[in-house]
Each structure stands twice: as structure tokens, then as C-alpha cells.
Amino acid sequence: MTLPTLPPLRDVIARHGLSASKALGQNFLFDEQLLDRIAAIPGSLKGQNVYEVGPGPGGLTRALLRAGANVLAVERDHRCLPALAELAEAFPGQLRVIEGDALKIDPAKEIGGPFHILSNLPYNVGTALAVGWLGGDVWPPEWQSLTLMFQREVADRIVAPAASDAYGRQAILAQWRSQAKIAMPVHRSAFTPPPKVMSAVVHITPGEAPEGVKMAVLEKLTAAAFGQRRKMLRQSLKAVPGALDALEKAGIAADRRPETVTIPEWCELARHLG
């Protein structure tokens, strides 16, 4: 199949009078080679369903469509809709755009089958969306992989190993039943306007959920423990009913600090707490 010839992204943005909105946490990527590399991270997307949040003028969307994906894109910024409509025309039947708030949309219901999530996430909602996708009660989830752009500091927290400075709640909630890795660092100069910080693409794939562990219990434990990360567990967890008894049953010393507790140990603790 011959791919359509598209005008450069900068021309599209100029023609539609688009500029990145600080209020919506937007930073646009123009480098099409970089965008194609991001679209390739999950593997072949030919004929696959893809969910994209915050496509903006459609830079990553183009790369996904070129890769043969069927894309559902959610965009809050109505200024970007005409540029996305042009892409839908150029790739007939491959792109559907919903104008709305991604925090209120269930992609599994909209798509009705397995899908990949790829997004240059708006910085102001990125973490909330990722926590929602990782926190579902149904496991394995409908999504087959998450390929998400974050600020580098957030990316480091998601993939951090135990006992590292970045290790905390985000690492535990991302890794207790998934594999998470940094797939690609992205320099701030790649964006327009350039953000103040570096970025990175994180790739997450669902794994097997440990038996008898509930996400809600894990969230409660880690919120209490890392809310006071400099305190020993006996102090930080005493507000959680049954947690100190669960520590003893799990064989975890109460004088340890939360960042020294590994993910399997947190799971064991959550299992005993029920």
C-alpha cells in the first residue's frame, strides 16, 4: 500500500494557527523519525487497535497510521480537530477522533477489543491516566502495552528498583503485576515549545498478578508508608488497621524504612492484610 504524502507538521500547525497550550500541558513533537521510532516500540502495529490521548496536531498519530494501526484518539483542544480530520481523510477508516476529556473515557468500551496505548501524554494529566490504566480490577487488562511519554523524573520513578532514591509508590503500583522499562530518552529540544525538563518514553507490558493481592490494599499500604518515607514501618503503618500484625506474619522487620521493602515483600504484606 502506498502511503499518502503529508505536509510537514510545522506547515499544518501554521495553517491552522495552532500553538501549544500551557493550560492543557501541551508540548508538540515535530521530528517524524523520532515519532516513527516511538510508534515502533510496541512491535508491529499493522491492523492493531491503538488508543492515543492528546494527539494535538497529530504528530504521533501520523506515525501510528503509517504503521498500519487503527487509532482512536481523544483530544480536548477543539483547535486541533481540523488537522486531525485531514489525517482521517488521508488514512480512510483508520482514525476516529473523540473530542473530550480522557479521564472520563473508557477506551476498552470504545474499542471493544484488545488495544495498545501510545501517547505523548499531556504533562498535567499523564500520571493520573497511567495510574488509572495500571489500577484496573480486571487483570490481565484489555490493553496489551502502554508506551507513554513522561517527564524524565516521573519515568525514573515508574521504573525504579527497590532501595533507589526514585523508588516509591509509583514504582510499586507500576511493577507489581507489570514489566516497566525506559524505552527511549527524549531531549527537551525535541519539543515545541521546549519544556524545562528532559523526557523519556516508558514501555509497560502486563504480567501475571500475584495471587491474593488486591490493588486497593497495596495502594492503602504504600500511601501510608511513602507518605512518611523517612519513618520506620512501625510508625508509618500504624494508622492502617491490621498492618503491624501483617508485617509480623510476612516476616518483615518493623524497623525497616519503606524504600528498602521490595515489591514481592509489599505483595506479601498486602496478601496478609487481605
List the helices and strands and how they pair.
Blueprint: H1 9-15, E1 28-29, H2 32-40, E2 49-53, H3 59-66, E3 70-75, H4 81-90, E4 95-99, H5 107-111, E5 115-119, H6 126-134, E6 143-151, H7 152-159, H8 169-175, E7 178-186, E8 191-192, E9 199-206, H9 215-226, H10 233-236, H11 243-250, H12 263-273
Parallel strand pairs: 2-3, 2-5, 3-4, 5-6
Antiparallel strand pairs: 1-8, 6-9, 7-9
Helix pairs in contact: 2-3, 9-12, 11-12
Alpha carbon gyration radius? 20 Å
Strand order of the largest sheet: 4-3-2-5-6-9-7
Kindly report the CATH topology of the largest domain.
Answer: Rossmann fold
Let me know the largest β-sheet.
Answer: 7 strands, mixed
Would you identify the CATH H-level superfamily of the largest domain?
A: Vaccinia Virus protein VP39
Features:
two-stranded antiparallel sheet, 12 helices, 274 residues
Describe the fold and architecture.
With 274 residues, this protein is an alpha/beta fold. The protein has 2 domains: 9-206, Vaccinia Virus protein VP39 (Rossmann fold, 3-Layer(aba) Sandwich), CATH 3.40.50.150; 215-273, Helicase, Ruva Protein, domain 3 (Orthogonal Bundle), CATH 1.10.8.100. 36% of the residues lie in helices and 19% in strands. It contains 12 helices and 9 strands. It has helices spanning 9-15, 32-40, 59-66, 81-90, 107-111, 126-134, 152-159, 169-175, 215-226, 233-236, 243-250, 263-273; strands spanning 28-29, 49-53, 70-75, 95-99, 115-119, 143-151, 178-186, 191-192, 199-206. The protein has a 7-stranded mixed β-sheet with strand order 4-3-2-5-6-9-7, sandwiched between helices. A two-stranded antiparallel ribbon has the order 1-8. α9 crosses α12 (263-273). The radius of gyration is 20 Å and the shape is elongated.
